[in-house]
Amino acid sequence: MKRLFTPFIATVFALLALSNTAYTQWSNVTICTASGIQSYQTIVSDGSGGAIITWADARTGTADIYAQRINSSGTVQWSVDGVVICTATGGQYTPKIVRDGSGGAIITWADNRSGTNDIYAQRINLSGAVQWAVDGVAICTATGVQFSQAIASDGSGGAIITWQDARTGSSDIYARKINSDGVVQWTADGVAICTASSPQFNPTIVSDGSGGAIITWEDTRGFGSDIYAQRINSSGTVQWTANGVIVCGASGSQNNPMIVSDDVTGAIITWQDYRSTSNADIYAQRINSNGVVQWISNGEAICTTTVYDQVVPTITNDGASGAIITWSDHRTGTDVIYAQRINSSGAVQWTSEGVVISNFATVATNQQIVSDDAGGAIITWEDSRGDIYAQRINLSGVVQWTANGVGIGTGGSSPTIVSSGSGLAIIATGGTDISASQLDGNGLLPVGLTLVPDKFRLSQNYPNPFNPSTTIQFGLPNASYVTLKIFNILGQEVASLINEKREAGQHSVQWNAHSLASGVYFYRLYAHPTDAKQTNDFVQTKKLLLLR
Questions:
Q1: Is residue 152 assigned to a domain?
Q2: Are the C-beta atoms of residues 379 and 416 closer than 8 Å to each other?
Q3: Residue 463 lies inside a defined structural domain of this protein
Q4: How far is CA 25 from CA 22, 41, 265, 474, in A?
Q5: Do 394 and 275 fall into the same domain?
Q6: CA–CA separation, 157 and 106 (whole Å)
Q7: Is 407 left (phi over 0), alpha (psi -120 to 50) or beta?
């Protein structure tokens, strides 16, 4: 999670996962360019092919909560730079959002108006009008600090909110429901989900399909951290063992649980796990509506490749009571992205230890995942190549787009992703501004649209090393005359790939080195802008390695 005052301005990119979509294609739509810092962006579908985005906003010098809706045609629907959700004194942070089932959303946040963190919420309708009390309804104002909140729909226009709570001086898990009219339900300041000895952390939540929810968290009541879960019904009564059912109590520590519905009133939970060595692995467990774990005790191994860490898993369902899990993987010596599908019986479905999503020789982090509505998934991540990248993987575990992902941003960070129906996914990211664009189901920009970078960029080729073909990508902020050449280690030109005018946008070219010997080569991009406003030439050289 980003700190509030990390430089941020959100960008929205759309991925069109099915080629037969009827949605209008759009590009570079401004969402918010207000002064100050905008951060902690998160996103939810509006149910009509668009999305509602919320964020913490420091335009007034302190942190407030704002939101904006963009429709399926890429047009912002509410006030310029967003609608006020809360501007109470003291500062508001880390908003979380869920659909209200009527085209609007419910937003919850940590609120410091009392001088310490409490939990508040607000509902906003399809037209951008807040529905409850000005500056939100108090969910919990108990003594101590409440934070790390998460939210799920109650299926009736309201929501169930869970959070980490320090009212006793320790750290416990509480939850409370708020209905569609903004009336809080259940015990004042929340129902205790877990108040076991030793702290509990990082709650996450999913609807149970019956008006209640299943909550999972990291729990230190034993030796190290374990994973527990609890179900609460629509009346606010916990359904399983007091203080929760153990999902994983293996040796070592288990951290960062994430949860998704199994589509039949239960859930699938994934986490990073240190049971076997000092390195982290990825495990998962399914739990039914009665709180009975369905797979092997302490969870099924998703990835246990030795030596290096696998961490920070995220999860989506596969539409068949199973799930697709993605994680950050260090097996190559740098952070790359892998994924695995597990079926309803707990059997992994793809290549042992996972399918590579991106193993480009850079750092790939902050991965997020959403269903592609066809049994597969779309995964997005922040990449040190300088962009936000995305990849689609199908039900069989075959990646569908360019190797190592499609670049969809220009210097973005911290992507969040949501499905908005008919295979469309929308990504909110940090970047240089707030804008919007789409990719089609083949991972290509729509015909006639280009994603224009803010400066000249030459990316590292991929794959690298390669045999015999590799792809070189570059970005142009304006129309330029471009030369791209390949040289050997003696400085001799061995290939000329481009020598022509290219329009502003992202470009790629493939080089086939079938006639050359193994060794180190260099590629050099020279761009002379044809725009009179731009006077500086761009020249950059990078190294590539051909291995036979």
A1: no
A2: no
A3: yes
A4: 9, 23, 36, 23
A5: yes
A6: 9
A7: beta
Q: What is the pLDDT along the chain (548 residues), one digit of tens a residue?
A: 333 333 333 333 333 333 333 344 455 556 778 888 777 888 999 988 888 999 888 889 999 999 999 887 778 899 999 999 999 999 999 999 999 999 999 999 999 999 999 999 999 999 999 999 999 999 999 999 999 999 999 999 999 999 999 999 999 999 999 999 999 999 999 999 999 999 999 999 999 999 999 999 999 998 889 999 999 999 999 999 999 999 999 999 999 999 999 999 999 999 999 998 778 999 999 999 999 999 999 999 999 987 789 999 999 999 999 999 999 998 888 889 999 999 999 999 999 999 999 887 677 788 999 998 889 999 988 887 767 788 889 999 999 887 888 776 555 667 778 776 555 877 776 555 444 555 555 554 443 344 566 678 787 776 777 888 887 878 888 888 999 999 998 889 999 999 998 888 778 788 999 899 988 999 999 998 876 555 557 888 888 888 87
Q: Please enumerate in sequence order all residues whose Cβ is within 8 A of that of 533, keeping only pairs 6 or more positions apart, or say none.
A: 478
Amino acid identity at 286: R
Count CB atoms within 10 A of the CB of residue 113: 18
Which of the listed residues 406, 436, 471 is the one where a domain comes to its end? 406
Q: How far is CA 493 from the centre of its chain?
A: 43
493-502 vs 92-99, strand pairing mode: unpaired
CATH number at residue 506: 2.60.40.2550
Residue type, 242: A
**Which runs of consecutive H residues, i.e. helices, occur in 282-417?**
none
Alpha helices in 276-329 (DSSP H): none
Strands (DSSP E) found in 8-136: 10-16, 38-45, 51-57, 64-70, 83-86, 92-99, 105-111, 118-124
Residue (of 92, 45, 44, 46) closest to 66 by Cα position: 92
C-alpha span between 130 and 151 (Å, rounded): 18
Read off φ and ψ for residue 148, nearest 5 degrees: 55, 45
Domain that holds residue 326: 250-406
In this structure, the answer to whether residues 402 and 263 fall within a common structural domain is: yes
Matching residue, tokens 């999860």: 315
Query: b or e along 260-291 (b: 16 or more beta carbons within 10 Å of the residue's beta carbon)?
Result: bbbbebbbbbbbbbbbeeebbbbbbbbbebeb
Residue 256 · residue 248 · CB < 8 Å:
no
Give residue 2's Cα distance to chain centre.
Answer: 13
Give 386's DSSP letter: T
Q: Note whether 259 and 205 are within 8 A (CB).
A: yes
